[in-house]
């Protein structure tokens, strides 16, 4: 029974949109890129993308890159995208903001 409860809880949390402390309270912009759904949050010159769907295919970081640029309207500064396929961070270059 305990094992079943733990499994149910982990499945419920796997699609959770829980931003890091630095992004708490910032409403997300929902972005879909090639079937992947991301919650993108911008805080000044930085952004975070959280992938909301489960998937086991390659290219999640490239889709996170596109989601951040789409969701913020800013370009990602070269060599600043970091994180993992579930949560990515980047520094931005924004014109006009």
TrEMBL record:
Domain of life per record: Bacteria
Cited PROSITE patterns: PROKAR_LIPOPROTEIN
Identification of the protein by name: Lipoprotein
Natural source organism: Rhodovulum sulfidophilum (Rhodobacter sulfidophilus)
